[in-house]
Specification:
With 82 residues, the protein is mostly loops. The protein has a domain of 57 residues: Zinc/RING finger domain, C3HC4 (zinc finger) (Herpes Virus-1). The protein contains 2 helices and 3 strands.
Length: 82
């Protein structure tokens, strides 16, 4: 089950469980749409995988399957993709 991480690893902007601006790779590294597209060029800086829109868990399911509250942040930020 997806963790639904609460923030962008690059800029630390909040990403609610129902955010359509969240992007993830197959390892669930999580970024906002702005960082994913403008800074990272759609490629995860951690694994090299494609960043795609994170699915939204229905609100009724969040009660029994809550989103993660653990924030992950790259201390050095994200360098623009060359």
């Amino acid at each position: 089950m997806l963790e639904l991480r609460p923030n962008c690893e690059c800029c630390d902007v909040d990403l609610a469980p129902d955010s359509r601006d969240a992007r993830i790779c197959t390892f669930e590294c999580t970024f906002c749409a702005d960082c994913a597209e403008r800074v990272l060029g759609g490629i995860c800086p951690n694994c090299g995988g494609e960043l795609v829109r994170r699915p939204i868990r229905p609100a009724a399911e969040l009660a029994n399957n809550p989103a993660s509250t653990k924030r992950i942040l790259k201390a050095e930020g994200c360098a623009p993709r060359a």
